[in-house]
Each structure stands twice: as C-alpha cells, then as structure tokens.
UniProtKB/TrEMBL annotation:
Reactions that this protein is recorded to catalyse: (3S)-3-hydroxy-3-methylglutaryl-CoA = acetoacetate + acetyl-CoA
Gene Ontology terms for molecular function: hydroxymethylglutaryl-CoA lyase activity; metal ion binding
Keyword set, alphabetical order: Lyase, Metal-binding
UniProt EC number: 4.1.3.4
Top-level taxon of origin: Eukaryota
Species annotation: Suillus placidus
Metabolic or biological pathway, per its Swiss-Prot or TrEMBL entry: Metabolic intermediate metabolism; (S)-3-hydroxy-3-methylglutaryl-CoA degradation; acetoacetate from (S)-3-hydroxy-3-methylglutaryl-CoA: step 1/1
PANTHER family reported for this sequence: HYDROXYMETHYLGLUTARYL-COA LYASE (PTHR42738)
Enzyme type, top EC level: lyase
GO terms classed as biological process: ketone body biosynthetic process; L-leucine catabolic process
Protein name: hydroxymethylglutaryl-CoA lyase
InterPro entries in UniProt: Aldolase_TIM, HMGL, PYR_CT
Domain named Pyruvate carboxyltransferase: residues: 42-330
Amino acid sequence: MLYPSVTSSCSRILRSTLKTSLKSFTSQPTLSTASSTNPNFVKIVEVGPRDGLQNEPRPIPPPIKAELINKLAIAGIRNIEAGSFVSPKWVPQARTQMAGTAEVLALIDSFPKTGYSVLVPNQKGLDDLLAILSTSTSPNSHAKPPPPVTEIAIFASATDSFSRANTNVSISGSLERLAPVARRALDAGLKVRGYVSVVVTCPFSGRVDPRRVRDVSRELVQMGCYEVSLGDTTGAGTPASIRGMLEEVAKEVDVGILAGHFHDTNGTATANIMTALDFGLRTFDASVGGLGGCPYSPGATGNVATEDVVYALTGDKLFGDIGEPYTRLAEIGEWISGVLGRETTSRAGKALLARRKREEERKRKEGAKL
C-alpha cells in the first residue's frame, strides 16, 4: 500500500523510470546527482562492502571482500563504497573489518565506468589513502595499481550524543576536524561525499530536530561535498518523518545534492525511498542482501537491500522478471549472506530465488517423465 504522500507524483516518476529499466544501477557515476541531468534516472550507491560489513562480529578476509566488490561490479553496480580508513579506537569493528582496506583495494579488479569510494573520517585516514594512491601511481612501483578510487566519504552526526559515541567529539568538533580533510582531498583531485547520521532518531537522545540535520548538511556542502547522504541510522523513520526532515533540510540545501540512506529496522525503508523520490531525491544508498547495522545503534538492522530498491523501481512493469542483472544481484546477496552464516534479508531476492528454484524443480520433474 502506498502512502498518500507518494501515490500520485511518485507513480508518474516510476512509470518514466521504468523506460530505462536497470539503468538505475548501470550508468556511469557523475559528479552531481542524477536529478541535475535526468529527472527519471536513479543512482544507487552500493555500501554493502563497507557499511554492510563493518558491523559483522567475525573477521572477514580481504579476499572475500574483494570478491564481493568484483561480483557487484560484474553485475552492473557502478558506484561502490569499497571500505574505510577508520580508527579502531572509536569503531569497535574497524580493527577486524576495515583494517584490511588497503589489501582489499589491491585485490579488486578494475571495471570500466565503475567508481570506487572509501570512508575517510579524519586526516590520518586521508594520509593513508593518499599514500596508497601515490605509491600505486609511482613509475618505480611494481605493485598492482588499485582501482581508481576517485572519491572519499566523510561523516558527521545530527546529535552531539551520537557524535561523541562515534567520534569522541561534539558536532562542532567533528565538523571542525572534517573541514581540512575535505579541503585536502579536493586539492588532491578527489571528490568528497558527506554523510549525516541519525537524521530521524538518535539511540541516545531520541527524536532529532530536523533543523540540526539541516545545519549539519549545510556545513558539509560548504566544505565542498558534492552530495550529502541523509542517514536514518536507527531505521525508525516513516514516510511522514522523512518528508518532514527533507522539507526542513531543503530550506538551505538544494534537493539535487541530497541522497537517502535508509536502514530497514522497521520495514519502512522502501516506503521512505518512495517518499524521498517523490520529494526530488535521485540517489539512494543500498546494501546487497540487506547487509549492515550500526555498532552505536542497538537493534538497528541492515541497510535497505539493493535488490529490494531495484525491484521497487522496476518490478511493477516487468512483473518480477527483470532480467539477468537483477538475478545476479539476488545471487550475490545469497552468496555473501551464506558466507556470513545466515540467509539474505532481501525480500525481493528471496522471492526471485524461490521462483527460480520452483521452476528448476518443475523442469526436473518434467524431464524425469520423458
């Protein structure tokens, strides 16, 4: 059931978007969000290899992460967040899950028109990334060059309590720390993308004032972020609260440079995407298989599944049969979930794989009768 706020105009957008089928995740990455050039284009940023895996309790070998990234690129994903250079002092899982980002980058294969980004929360992280990039481009280096990392992501929070838990500083302290990082990255020729966490509710201070989200987003844009992704970290958002937040942020930040990052804790992530789409956003973060969570938000489940987003944007016209690229996504979600010892949480992925299994069983039985 669609919410009244998204029924009419969003339906028109989706009918037009369906004309391009799976272009939502196969087109070339751009400096600006797609809405500035084509209002019927939706860009998906795949965050599974970083945001999706960072909360896993068991170490995941770099070769597995690299294989995941390569599989996603082969499937047609064109915007992939490959890892992060974060301090294990403040993010508990970083020591085991993200400490191998340099090795992961060295193992990834390069694919045409595929853009890779990494999360860089401070100057030390940027130093580490630039050292890798400079070494790989040195004429005297015999190392395999990593894929073209052309973008970094920086993050801030909309509440002081979450900011202190996440980075040990207040919002103002965090922004002050990030400004020189963004400036140096831009000087080095890298694009900078910003994240704002807890845009609806905070696990420590409750309901978040949308004006705080607006102010932090504005500061990130002023630093030089070409895009700001608004994160419903706890997954408590509803279409009504997402719209209310966006209305406030849009008072000072162009909707064309906003993206949505919705966790599916309460099953509302896809509905929230439709609301944001109706509002004018054309970029959304997603995680294959619904991977993810947040170490500072107990109970928060994974990001919205990439398969579910693609199905929501294309499945109505194609009645569930949306071709090989989508099947590959469902298979990747099933594979990485199996590596982690569980089932995929993608509803659309599960449905597609179940239909395929039934069809294979039907053919097997028919073949046995011959």
